[in-house]
Amino acid sequence: MKEFQCPSCRQPVSFEHVACANCGILLVFDAPRIDMRRLASNQACRNREIIGCNWCVEGADWYCGSCRLTRTIPHLGSARNIMLWRRVEEAKRRLLYDLSRLGLPLKSRSGEQVGFDILSDQISPILTGHLSGVITLNLAEADDVEREARRVAFREPYRTLLGHFRHEIGHFYWDLLVNSTSFQAPFKLIFGDDSQDYQGAINSYYNRSDRSYDRSGFISEYATSHPWEDWAETFAHFLHIVSTLDSLAGLPLSLDERARQTLTDPYLESDFEALLALWMPLSRGINELNRSLGMSDAYPFDISPAVKGKLHLVHMAISAFREQQRLAA
């Protein structure tokens, strides 16, 4: 994510800050303008006090654009649930930032609005997933201990809240960017035949005794379960890449002219090869930094030629959609 500055003292502030650590003024994030502003009267989201939402409201709304998308919140009878819900909403706001920078809408062709149900499984099991634009997320995924236990149980190298959101929204954008478009045939060629029974494929995946898979063809094991899941995993990784490169732009590094041009706005970069040329050494570098601190790799994945082709298709589909919107405006 790009670096923001306090509108008063110009010191760096993070995307989540509600106040400047240097001068103390209260801050709000202006989502339409993608900038930090000084908090004015009647701008605070109603969730600012309870979960630290720092997005400003629009007009006479009580809730910001992000909080209005949450259809269902967990039961707030415990401090733990409030703490976990706060983490979930922080990750969701980063997702919405990604989508805004990419120029992707939050409505389907038929007008279905993206929505979020944040549910606790204290009473009955909750499965994180997507259906017709609604993303359901199990609140337990915001608990570091529980999420790590699930990561190990499912033999996943990576499992985060933001990763969940980026994966699940990928299903929504498959329908918008690929289904019934000129990209449907290339999708079948590269990702596989999506007409195969989805639920049967998922059940078969979880019943496998052999957990090995073709690492040269898929970005993750779960991507092998069905072409739709392969797309969602790949879409999430595309967001990982452009978001991290956006953060790179604010670091005091010596870069050549082409790299600086790419980092002007990685989300809108038209040259896919330029994105990958920056990402490959960066991902190796952040992994080495993590190892130096005794931590696991931040990006424990290899981008093979086949995976690169899948990422390229995601990039092309997003770029084509954005161009169609520009021409229709």
From TrEMBL:
Residues 4-76 form the Zinc-ribbon domain. Gene3D superfamilies: 3.40.390.70. Transmembrane segments: none annotated. This is Zinc-ribbon domain-containing protein. InterPro entries: UCP012641, Zinc-ribbon_6_bact. Signal peptide: none annotated. It holds the Pfam family Zn_ribbon_DZR_6.
